[in-house]
Amino acid sequence: MSLRPWRWRLVLAGLIGLVTLSLALWLAHVLGVSKSLINGFFLVVSIIGYALIGLFCRTSNPDEYYVAGRRISAPFNGMATAADWMSAASFIGLTGLLLSDGFVGDGRHAGGLAYVLGWTGGFCLLGFLFAAKLNRSSAITIPDFLGKRFDSTAVRWLAAWGAILCSSVYLIAQIYGIGLVASMLSGLTFELGVLLALGGILLCSFLGGMRAVTWTQVVQCVVIVASMVALCVAVSCKSQGHPVLPLAAAQSLQSVEQRAKEIEADPGEQHTREAIALRIRDLDHKIADPMAARIQERQLIAKQITRARAENASLREIQALESNPAWRESGVEQLTQVWWTERDQLLQALNRPVGFQAPGLSGWNQGWVNTLALVFCLMAGTAALPHVLVRSYTASSPAQAQQSVAWALVFIVVVYMCASALAVLTKSYVLTELVGVALDQLPEWADRLKLRKLALLSVEDFNKDGIVQFSDVRLFNDYVVLAVPEIARLSPVFTGLIAAGALAAALSTADGLLLTISNALAQDLYFQTAEPQAPPLRRVMLSKILLMVVALFAAWFATHRPVNILFWITCAFSLAASTFFPVLLLGLYWPGMNRLGAIAAMTSGLGLSFYYIVSNHPWVHMKLHLLPEDTVWWGLDPTCAAVFGVPTGLLLGWVLSKFSSEKN
Asked: What percent of the chain shows pLDDT beyond 70?
């Protein structure tokens, strides 16, 4: 009996529910209901809705739990793949990245265009190279497939640990994004926001595994696409007076570039950049001799506090002096880390383009090198991510698996086009309404964003002229898209709507990653080696228990807010590309690939990429007193580690397979 009508009714119910909820909350806003209550209602309804789907789709059948029965048709598998793919970085971070770094970067680092090209191009690789061939196997995880392909427990174990590492890095970033969105919607602390949203994840993936996750992701895909399109159309109507988004973006882009030229020529902007450069040099001196710098700065602050108290200065002024890291931090190591962080932020403010094309970048430069390298890493990483590859197993046939990728690309391209247009429209507001105004006459939306519990905007008058220059402004890329409704003066319903889309994006990816990690631990590391004859129910139950443990551990780690979302996710792509792309490409298309070659390809690729990322981490630089130029190869950013890992894996995999005595 076909379930297709029921499936389409689920999609339609998700869309109708989202529209009905939005209209009801818009009416509530008109009647005077507070913004926090509206946003909190979006959060609660979203989590309850996804949990109910998970409850409805609960199962203990191994085939349903691990691969959703291998019977999902292409449109629905494509929707689930798109939702699984469109993570916090895609939905929350991409608009902020384009807004901050432009399309082609600052001449040293890649811009937002590299992410759009790399992520979409990666799905083309996935569809052409891997989807159909993986579907023909009887495997349920990528380590399971590689273990069977090379008839090797060592290969299975190595692939399992590689999948766990890549997925864990990705998962922490997703839970971090969930905490940001949940805390902003509900008004709770970041930590409570993480735990609240974590309940929704567990109720879905714990009860029904891949079956529940698939149908939850189908609804989440509807929410993601609908919320992004609705916000973009609303901003387009508000800024240009019509709903045609590409035309509105083109119109705004012209005004943005014209305004950027005016800002670049403004003497005030030049003075601000000189002040920032002076501050960077001062930080370099402090970092070179932190002990002496700390003593000197504490003495200066003590004198300023004494003078302020003697002159009956306001409590705010005294607290501002006491909040200086040199006064607050007791250890030199923590203070040095604060200085390094400030230095990195100032460098970004100094180098970022005002418009979407930095001046003087018409020729070849290091930014283009990093752009091409990052496109390669993201393409190979997309085609090799274990939680995306496993979607090939859930399709009903090899042809359906390939068609699923095409369907997924349709939804992904819509979101990416909207994110790109939204960045242009938002930057137009920033350059015309914020830059150039007096500090005591900021637009209302800027004051609100500065005072949020999780601030979305900061303004610092570096040259002390009382005017907001472009380099004085910092928008927080990780979640600036959540501020767009306020910047465009839209109804708070749109804030809840876009946050619901962001939450759906982070939850959907987190569900898939949790399943990948727990299944690798239970199925590949334990049952296939220690207890291969275990009954199906025991396998599923252990996977569920491990899923809960992994989720709690990842949530605990995410509450420490390690680094920005986009950095972690991009590193996960490089690690996945280096670990799995060479072994899958050679294993699927070259009959001569053997066990030794597979082990060499995975260990060399993963090891080299992991070393490059870690050796270039700011914490390592601080500990070893290194500068970036001491550890960077060819000027490539650490997120481009797969440029070294993938060729190394391919070469060593081929060499050891070709010249070893072991037969495949």
From this structure: 90
| Residue pointed to by tokens 């939450």 | 503
Q: In terms of Cα–Cα distance, which of 161, 140, 137 is closest to 149?
A: 137
Q: Look up residue 599 and give its two tokens.
A: 């082990």
Q: Quick one: tokens of 339?
A: 């200085």
628 CB neighbour count, 10 Å cutoff = 13
Where does 430-563 have alpha helices with state H?
A: 444-451, 484-487, 492-519, 536-558
Distance (Å, rounded) from C-alpha 55 to C-alpha 32? 35
**Of 243, 220, 196, which Cα lies nearest the Cα of 17?**
220
Task: Dump strand ranges (E) for 310-455.
Answer: none
Instruction: Say what the pLDDT of residue 4 is.
Output: 56
**DSSP string covering 90-123:** IIIIHHHHHHHHTTT-SSSS--HHHHHHHHHHHH
Q: What's the distance, CA 513 to chain centroid?
A: 13
Among 3, 46, 413, CA closest to 211: 3
651 confidence band (pLDDT: 50, 70, 90): very high
**3 state DSSP class of 47:** helix
Nearest to 274 by CA among 475, 474, 471, 473: 471
Tell me the per-residue pLDDT of 232-270, one tens digit each, with 9 for 90 and over: 999 999 988 898 888 998 888 888 888 888 888 888 889
- Rounded to whole angstroms, the Cα distance separating 496 from 37 reads 10
For 64, list phi and psi in degrees, rounded to 5.
-70, -40
Q: What is the pLDDT of residues 435-476, one digit of tens each?
A: 888 888 888 888 888 776 667 788 888 888 888 888 888 877
Planar angle of CA 451, 231, 217, nearest 5 degrees? 105
**From CA 365, how far away is CA 374, in angstroms rounded?**
15
| CA-closest candidate to residue 263, choices 441, 443, 94, 471 | 471
Partner residues linked to 350 by β-bridges: none
Helices marked H in 289-434: 290-310, 315-322, 325-328, 332-351, 366-382, 386-389, 391-394, 398-429
Token pair belonging to 261: 């030229």
Number of H helices, E strands in the chain: 30, 2
- Give residues with Cβ within 8 angstroms of 408, minimum separation 6: 78, 79, 81, 82, 85, 123
- Whether 58 and 196 have beta carbons less than 8 Å apart is answered as no
Determine which helix (DSSP H) or strand (DSSP E) holds 473, and give its type and residue range: strand 473-475
* Domain ranges, ordered by start, for the chain: 4-247+366-428+488-562
Three-state secondary structure of 283-317: HHHHHHCHHHHHHHHHHHHHHHHHHHHHCCCCHHH
Our measurement of the distance from residue 364's CA atom to the centroid of its chain's CA atoms, rounded to an integer in Å, reads 28
CATH no. of 4-247+366-428+488-562: 1.10.4160
CA–CA dist 551, 547 (Å, integer):
6
Q: What is the mean pLDDT of residues 569-590?
A: 93
Residue 462 DSSP label: T
617 touches 568 (CB < 8 A): no
> Contact at 8 Å (CB) between 468 and 434?
yes
Q: Are 260 and 354 in contact (CB under 8 A)?
A: yes
Q: Does the structure show a pLDDT above 70 at 562?
A: no
What's the length of the chain? 664
Q: What residues contact 650, with CB distance under 8 A and at least 6 apart?
A: 582, 585, 586, 601
Rounded to whole angstroms, the Cα distance separating 67 from 395 reads: 9
Tens of pLDDT, residues 59-104? 778 788 888 888 888 899 999 999 888 877 677 778 888 888 877 7
